[in-house]
UniProtKB/TrEMBL annotation:
This is IS6 family transposase. One of its GO terms (biological process) is DNA recombination. It comes from the Bacteria. It comes from Microvirga aerophila. Keywords: DNA recombination, DNA-binding, Transposition. InterPro entries: DDE_dom, IS_Transposase, Transpos_IS6. Residues 76-205 form the DDE domain. One of its GO terms (molecular function) is DNA binding.
Amino acid sequence: MKPTHHPRYARHRFPPEGISHAVWLYFRFPLSLRMVEEMLAARGILVSHETVRQWALKFGQSFADQIRRRLPAPGDKWHLDEVVISIAGQKHWLWRAVDQHGVVLDILVQSRRNAKAAKRLLRKLLKKQGVTPRVMITDKLASYGAAKREIMPGVEHRQHRGLNNRAENSHQPTRRRERIMKRFKSAGQAQRFLSVHDQVANLFRRPANTTAADNRKARARAFMTWENVTGLAAGF
């Protein structure tokens, strides 16, 4: 294969295609760093799992930011939910917002489950999305109502546990990654990893109720976007 040159990968002795592929594998699938190391070894790229971790740290957030800019505008119905995660023996809360299509809008790892924490999430969402939703759907947690009244007073707010399955289901991939990674080591690590993981998942998400042919087209578009984001092909 003719080597690919891109300024983003300057001073790396490993092929850029391998770096891009490793980052894609790590964030796209529930794989440990050592699993990615072994999959690269099968392709003749001998790196340590620590090298894969450093690649994920260096390139992951940059790729995620570019993916976010290339995705379609979010839906006007936001589902918000929070789930407890254990980090170093301490209880933390993972706050997540998704739209009505299941696209993850943003996440925030916090140590509290109060109105202040809910306000931080809403402010972060408004800053990143640049628009307010038509409807906000949450469970019965009172913190959402208090935050909404201050941050987004004109937005319709529906509170019902049964209406929020979309947000609750979006936590499942995180639980799988928690098991593979043997829990997150710090709140910062969880925030960094999930911020990238969810955007990669958004890009390669299979739309609901689609045919196999439509899914192949959507996947081809996702790979094309990944190539534009990384400057390289996702696989080699």
